[in-house]
Amino acid sequence: MAFALQKPDLVDLPTSREGVLARYRTLREISRRINDELTRLVSDDAILREARKLGLAHGKTLVLDDMEEMNYVLDLAIHTAAPPRSRAIDRYARSARFAAGSDEALMLDAMQESRFSVLLIDGRHEIAGLVASDLLHGAQKIWLMDVGLESSMPEGAVLATRLYMPGHFAMTAGANVPCDRTLLEDALYELPSRLCDGPLEALSRDRRFAEAVYRIALSEGLMHRVRYRDVPDDA
Questions:
Q1: What are the DSSP calls for the chain, one per residue?
Q2: Which of 36, 100, 166, 187 is the most exposed place for a label (fewest CB within 10 A)?
Q3: CA angle 215-37-29, nearest 5°?
Q4: pLDDT digits (tens, 9 = 90+) for 70-122
Q5: How would you classify the pairing of strands 171-179 and 115-124?
Q6: For the segment 123-162, what is each residue's pLDDT rounded down to a tens digit?
Q7: Cross-sheet strand order for the sheet of 115-124
Q8: CB neighbours (10 Å) of residue 65?
Q9: Do residues 180 and 187 touch, judged by C-beta distance below 8 A?
């Protein structure tokens, strides 16, 4: 089976489950540290602006049913921006001083090149994680490494998420939405017809599609089906 690759990883990937999980956890920890720094970079005004788009703010007050809903606000505040604003991830990258060729530089590059995707879960990968088809990119096969999703997503499920692709496998950015046909059709209905009539790949690069998916999922209470938990290393 062929898997989608952004660019070669800096190390040869181990062939054992334990080795792959160790590599995944290294990159996941780096992405968490970068996200923590990015969160401090995002202004209160930017957070409120994105929260209003998702129906999570009134005036200057955030209105949340659960603090986990901030994952969707921060995803948009970090990875998207309406012209002529610049993205927080790009501003961070201009000031970052990671050594060339380091895992930190690899992960930051993958975060800058992230894409919003709708994934059909095909099944478990033979080593670790999942195999999924990216429905916005010609059903391209993705090796998805996420230990939480591996333990909870059934075959045939559909998931909207932002993907980081640092090498051999893809990783989720953290904000995940369980999808069905109705949700996706409703999201497309909110977009300009010229965008919907174009190639599906264009949706993954357009901030308005992610906004619509998040807003509809939150308004319909679908996120009550999602729990974000750290999975123990020995799980």
A1: -----SS--SSPPPSSHHHHHHHHHHHHHHHHHHHHHHHHHS-HHHHHHHHHHTT-EETTEE--SSGGGHHHHHHHHHH---TTSPPHHHHHHHH--PPTTSHHHHHHHHHHT-EEEEEEEEEE-SSSSEEEEETTTTTEEEEE--HHHHHHPPTT-EEEEEEE--SSSBEEEEEEEEE-HHHHHHHHHTS-HHHHTS-THHHHH-HHHHHHHHHHHHHTTGGGG----PPPTT-
A2: 100
A3: 90
A4: 999 999 999 999 889 999 999 999 999 999 999 999 999 999 999 999 999 99
A5: unpaired
A6: 999 999 999 999 999 999 999 999 999 999 999 999 999 9
A7: 140-144, 130-134, 115-124, 158-164, 171-179
A8: 11
A9: no
Structure tokens at 22: 């160790």
